Amino acid sequence: MLLLLPPSETKVQGGTGRSLLLGALRFPELTRVRSRVIAALLELSADQEEAVTALKLGPRGHGEVAINRAVRRSPTVPAIDRYTGVLYDALDAGTLSETARDFAARHLVIQSALFGPIGALDPVPGYRLSHSSKLPGMRLPAVWSAPAGAALTAVGGLVVDLRSEGYAELAPISAPERSVYVRVVSVDDTGRRRALNHFNKKTKGLFARAILENAEDFDDVEDLAAWGDAAGFTLTPGAVAGEWDLLVPAAASAAAASPTAASRPA
């Protein structure tokens, strides 16, 4: 089984590991493509103004260009510990059990725009690049799609895809009979469903954490859905073939989105 997650623009900086070693990353067959994308990022980063524009950085993000310039020599941390933000805060990798982290090492893959798909415990440096970023002479979907998609498809087994659409395009799975794309939707008392934004990421993080802590290699989505029901996650077929909806009660998502929710007494 593969559990696929998107990365995050926000990341922990610094690190404790040695500098980037492409050969240490999962899917070594992607090393040549990774080198090309890194070279393009370094070329872009040589021009501060051009890089700020291409990476769509606000005034507070200009320092990200210097971080990109140092991507080959800066210290690393495991990928699952590098990313922050709503999804990764909910995943809370630092508090995962040893069994869960071991399961993540074998089954969790994060879709990076810079490195392609990487293993949860792969050592990676800080960087800034998203699926929609523009690099000199290349379009990221065109560069990554075929080789990264083939690498993921070759793994075999059930693929549980929690990536956003933009990152899924960087490595499409060519095995629809054993892959499931999960969308987080709210459902009200009438059964009406609608897509979520902020709560989508939180729910995916909680769902991924539960799967890792459960540490079961599911054979198919029906087995995953049956486990989900017992674990408090409702997973049902979506409106499009190959897609499943992870349901969140409308009242729960509305409460979580409320600006005053955090200040209410527990």
From TrEMBL:
InterPro entries documented for this protein: YaaA (IPR005583)
Entry's Gene Ontology cellular component terms: cytosol
Secretion signal span: none
GO biological process: response to hydroperoxide
Superkingdom of the source species: Bacteria
PANTHER family: PEROXIDE STRESS RESISTANCE PROTEIN YAAA (PTHR30283:SF4), PEROXIDE STRESS RESPONSE PROTEIN YAAA (PTHR30283)
Annotated protein name in UniProt: Peroxide stress protein YaaA
Species annotation: Labedella endophytica
